[in-house]
Design a protein that fits this description.
Layout (H helix, E strand, L loop, with lengths): L1 H17 L2 H8 L2 E2 L6 H21 L8 E3 L11 E3 H11 L4 H29 L7 H23 L4 H15 L5 H9 L8 H30 L18 E2 H26 L5 H4 L18 H9 L4 E4 L2 E4 H29 L16 H20 L2 H8 L3 H40 L1 E8 L5 E6 L3 H8 L4 H4 L3 H4 L23 H14 L8 H23 L9
Antiparallel strand pairs: 1-4, 2-3, 5-6, 7-8
Length: 566
């Protein structure tokens, strides 16, 4: 009691002088749902905090300069070799600064965890439909955060000026040079002259520790602020509607859990950093423009871009004395903007295709309940995996003793065939799961118990689902059918005596390409959907179950059939 009284006294003293209790009261009482998948965003946020802490430590000793010096530190194999000041300071941090190597490893692993957490969090948001109204802006902020995290990571691992990071910068220079008209000027401006120049390290350093962190922190704060302002999403369940949130308040339950989870993320990342070495720059050596390390691989978040470069055919256009290198421009410059542009536009495309009304969506979808969206996401993920595997085609060839040409050709074919195949299979699986849910609700769970009837036949005994287990199966969001075009799901539409629809014309009679395109998109999203069982259908199914139970009773006791309940 003494500790509580002291804390209460401190809080009262602070409130008397700041008046913070009144405006912060609703914030501290805000309810958050309790589900493990919501922690994915927290992992990204806590990893960003770890990055800021460890990055601040590294700035005390890192020297952002390309000036050449002779290494004379404690790492004997490098003594007497001319290196840049950036490379020497990185090696010194690793071997001569107490705890420096651990902090370097922790910083690098936190960056990997940060990008992984953002990617998995975006997948959770996409497959559950958490990007729908009113969260389109938050989805866009998250997509921009993901892109900035990739750029920040690339800038970070390019700073040590070792052979691996220098190879990555050389690729970046080639990408700039492939841009028509301005490519050579852009490369000259970024590197401060012909590659490698003398200005890229200090410029990258300023961008890495000032500009990009400010943008990341600002977008992350805006992202979290929108989560607080908007009602939090939740999975369907008993008592959960679009008008409430079932969970725990921010203070004290959720805040205590979040604080403990931060130290778990910090501790696990530190454990990995202490046990698994990453980016040993002393083994790669300083950057040499005439050399490249064997088996060079970028960090995982740049693997798909590397794979796109390796899979692209050697296409070039020669005209008017100029060369347009499509083999570099398309996969290296245009691919990433195209991918993130599609991600930014998807919430609006789905809203247009499904003819979503003005209602807000606070209940999440199970992936099976939106088969078209799930199939699109599975196809896009397959496309990414093919590019990622291509980024390590040489490693795969060496480890599996296969031909690198055969691996490259196979991945080129899979890049266009596998996404559509996986999307089709995923859609069929989702529809099959919908039919299974429908059968579970209407006929109950199969018990595996066979009972012989008086007539000599056999029937299987079914058990009705509990109301709690049945809830998510019957509370599926109705917008997947309520907003569907009539010709897509077989719903009759009010019509005028002349046969035209209430909207003036049927989609089939429309000659405008926009109407036909919208009708085709509606069919894509709504065709073959299995509607949740209606109360009338459940009542009839339960009547049939009671009749079966009466028949079972008759078969067991040999007496008359039990009367049905009214």
């Amino acid at each position: 009691m003494g500790v509580k009284q002291e804390l209460g006294g401190v809080a009262g003293w602070l409130d008397d002088r700041t008046g913070i209790a009144k405006p912060s009261g609703p914030l501290l009482r805000k309810v958050f749902p309790d589900h493990w998948s919501f922690m994915l965003g927290e992992v990204a946020l806590y990893s960003l905090i770890v990055l800021l802490i460890t990055g601040t430590f590294l700035t005390f000793w890192f020297v952002p300069s390309s000036g050449q010096v002779i290494y004379g530190g404690s790492y004997i194999p490098l003594r007497g070799i001319p290196v840049s000041e950036a490379y020497r300071s990185t090696v010194d941090i690793s071997f001569d600064v107490r705890g420096g190597l651990l902090i370097r490893q922790l910083h690098h692993w936190a960056a990997l965890v940060f990008t992984v957490a953002i990617a998995v969090h975006m997948m959770r948001v996409f497959f559950t439909g958490a990007f729908r109204k009113p969260r389109e802006l938050n989805w866009m902020l998250g997509s921009c955060l993901s892109l900035l995290a990739i750029v920040e990571g690339f800038a970070g691992y390019s700073l040590p000026d070792d052979l691996l990071s220098g190879t990555g910068l050389r690729i970046a220079d080639g990408l700039m040079l492939s841009i028509p008209v301005i490519g050579s000027w852009l490369s000259f401006a970024v590197f401060g002259g012909p590659f490698p120049g003398n200005d890229i390290i200090p410029r990258l350093y300023a961008v890495h520790i000032l500009l990009l962190p400010a943008l990341l922190v600002g977008l992350a704060l805006a992202h979290v602020l929108l989560v607080f302002i908007q009602k939090h999403t939740q999975f369907p369940g008993p008592g959960r509607t679009n008008r409430n949130v079932v969970g725990f308040p921010l203070m004290p339950v959720y805040l205590a859990k979040a604080g403990g989870f931060f130290f778990i993320v910090f501790g696990v990342t530190a454990l990995i950093a202490g046990l698994v070495t990453i980016n040993p720059v002393w083994m790669f050596g300083p950057y040499d423009p005439t050399a490249a390390s064997a088996g060079s691989q970028p960090d995982w978040y740049m693997g798909f871009a590397e794979g796109a470069l390796r899979l692209m055919l050697p296409w070039e256009i020669h005209a008017f004395g100029r060369t347009l290198s499509l083999n570099v421009l398309v996969p290296g410059v245009l691919l990433i903007p195209a991918m993130y542009g599609a991600a930014l536009a998807y919430p609006f495309l789905e809203r247009w295709a499904t003819r979503a009304g003005p209602q807000e969506h606070h209940l999440l979808d199970r992936p099976r309940d939106a088969p078209t969206r799930t199939s699109i996401g599975a196809g896009a993920l397959t496309f990414y995996i093919c590019l990622f595997l291509a980024g390590g085609n040489d490693i795969i060839a060496v480890k599996l003793h296969l031909s690198i040409e055969a691996i490259t050709m196979t991945l080129r074919v899979l890049l266009f065939v596998a996404p559509f195949t996986v999307a089709w299979v995923t859609r069929r699986i989702c529809l099959s799961l919908q039919r299974r849910d429908h059968a579970l609700v209407t006929h109950g769970r199969e018990t595996g118990m066979l009972v012989r009837t008086a007539g000599g036949g056999f029937i299987e005994r079914h058990e009705a689902l509990s109301p709690y287990a049945q809830w998510p199966l019957v509370s599926r969001a109705q917008q997947h059918t309520d907003n569907a075009p009539p010709h897509a799901v077989g719903i009759s539409e009010p019509s005028h005596p002349n046969g035209a629809s209430a909207h003036g014309q049927t989609p089939e009679d429309s000659t405008h390409w926009r109407d036909r395109l919208k009708a085709a998109a509606g069919r894509l999203y709504f065709s073959d959907q299995i509607a949740p069982p209606t109360p009338e259908g459940q009542h009839l199914a339960h009547e049939a179950v009671r009749e079966d139970q009466a028949a079972l009773h008759d078969a067991r006791v040999g007496g008359p059939t039990l009367p049905r309940e009214p």
